[in-house]
Amino acid sequence: RTIVIATKNPGKAREFNAVFATEGIQIKTLLDYPELPRIDETGATFEENARLKADQIAAYLHLPVLADDSGLMVDALGGRPGIYSARFSGDHNDAGNNAKLLYELTGVPAAERTATFHTTLVFAKPERPAEDLVVEGNIQGQILGIPRGDNGFGYDPLFYVPALDATLAQLTVEQKNQISHRAKAIEQLKQKWRAWIKA
Ligand code: ITT
Ligand code: NA
C-alpha cells in the first residue's frame, strides 16, 4: 500500500515515515514528484489549505493523498502566526521565522508566552473526493527566549513542553511522535480508517 503525503517539508516527511513504516504502509512525498506544480495555499483555515493540497495532488497522481497543514498560535500575539506560520517572516525559512517570533515576543514574560501547535490532516481518495477524512491535533507549550535542541524542524527549538521539561527539538522523532500535534492527528486518522475499513 502506498500513500502520498502532500508535503515538500522534509521534517514532516520524516515524522510521517517514522509512524507509517511500523504499519507496513509505504510513504511517498512531493519530494518524490518534483515535476508537480506548486499548490497555492489560498485557504482561510488549516482545513481549507490541507484540502487544497490533498485534492489537487490526488487529482494529479490518482493515488490516495494525505495533506498536512500546521501552524503555531501564540496567545500574546492574538493567535498569530496561525495559518501564516510558514511565511511569518516574509519567506519560507525556518531561521527567519524563528527570529521574527523572538522579536515579536521581546519583553513578554515567560508566563505570558503560552502557545498552541496545531495540525489538520485531510485524507483524500481520488475515486471518492467527496468522502475525504478530516482530523486534527493540538499541543500546548511555551515559546522560549532562546532556542534549545537540534532535532525536529521549524519552530521546534522554541516550543517548550513543560510536562517534559524539553523543547520539541530536544526530543527524538520517536519521542515527538508520542506527543505532538501531528501525532495526535495521525492517531485520530488511524481510528477513522479502522471504522471506515469495517463499514
Ligand atoms: P507543506 O505545505 O509542503 O506541507 P509547509 O512547511 O509549507 O510544508 P505548513 O503550510 O503546514 O507546511 O506550514 C507550517 C509552518 O509551521 C512551517 O513553517 C513549518 O516549518 C512549521 N511547522 C509545521 N509543523 C511543525 C512542527 O511539528 N514543529 C515545528 N514547526 C512546524
Ligand atoms: Na500552510
Automatic annotation (TrEMBL):
Mg(2+) binds at residues 40, 69. Homodimer. Substrate binds at residues 7-12, 70, 153-156, 176, 181-182. The chain holds residues 207 to 405 of 405 of the full protein. This is dITP/XTP pyrophosphatase. Belongs to the HAM1 NTPase family. The keyword Magnesium applies. One of its GO terms (molecular function) is ITP diphosphatase activity. It comes from the Bacteria. Transmembrane segments: none annotated. It comes from Latilactobacillus graminis. The lineage of its organism: Bacteria, Bacillati, Bacillota, Bacilli, Lactobacillales. Pyrophosphatase that catalyzes the hydrolysis of nucleoside triphosphates to their monophosphate derivatives, with a high preference for the non-canonical purine nucleotides XTP (xanthosine triphosphate), dITP (deoxyinosine triphosphate) and ITP. Seems to function as a house-cleaning enzyme that removes non-canonical purine nucleotides from the nucleotide pool, thus preventing their incorporation into DNA/RNA and avoiding chromosomal lesions. Keywords: Hydrolase, Magnesium, Metal-binding, Nucleotide metabolism, Nucleotide-binding, Nucleotidyltransferase, Transferase. The active site is at 69 (proton acceptor).
